[in-house]
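Table S2 (text version). Query chain:
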Amino acid sequence: MSYLDNIRTFVRVYELGSMSAAGRDLRISPAVTSSRISQLEDHLGVRLFQRTTRSLTPTEQGQTFYRGATEILATVETAEAQIANITENLRGSLYVAAPLGVGRRLIAPLVPQFLADYPEVSLRLRLTDRKVDLTTEGLDLAFFLGQPEDSNLRIRKIADVDRVLCAAPDYVARRGMPRDGDDLVGGGHECLSLRFPGATEFQWRLQTPEGPKRFRVAGRYESDDGDVLTDWALSGQGVVMKPVFEVADHLAEGRLIPVAQATPPEPIQMACLYTHRRRQDPKTRLFMEFVTDRIADQVRGQVGGQSGGQIGAGMAG
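Corresponding structure-token output:
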């Protein structure tokens, strides 16, 4: 087994905090993962991890070696990228994250064509509505909706995405049609919230005649999965705020109808995050350009006249 493979394995074990998790990530067995770490420790003559039956903790030597190991891998990746630029023979793995709705509806359908164009590239697409950390999770790209928290990362804006407040017709029949954000709050409407661990309150930022305003909505339904919120809305449990492209079909067929239209949500930014080093990798750059150009076209189609027609049809239903 190559020394470089052992270093890659060590870095993933260090970052994921688990032999089994690193093995799954690298698609190798736990036994192979453990063997690579042991080979590396034998070569270095130190213990890199303190192991117990329940925990795996980096030693002081392991912490020091991790810093150097990441620099080694970065140097190798840069050299490979320079060669790939010359040969135009892209190869290797891409690690990409995206929100569930964006990933399922916009990115995943484009992956087969990209991999067909570049047969020596493999791609691992991680879909989650939680915020991800590119550095610690070993990601090349992360698509997202909203504003990034880490100002040290590079950002490529894709589009401003229209959003809509909507609910099932039977919910509106039972609870009444909220006219605006004040009706949502004052009328005690059940608002379906996308929430993550550590969140203490939930607000919707809506457009009012006086300008953008935050409304502290409430409800008994919360999830960290946006598609779960859509399912609850479809079953008549409450009002949901969604990007139009995620619920366009439901609006067109009348399964969901817009509500509180006097104070629509502000558009939300769709963008892609990457580090400067990752951007130098030609396969990362090409995948980002391949996907973002096509996403922008699709989202603009939804945001333009098409979505307006779909919302109108939903209202008629």
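Notes on Table S2: The radius of gyration is 23 Å. Residues 303-317 have pLDDT under 50 and may be disordered.
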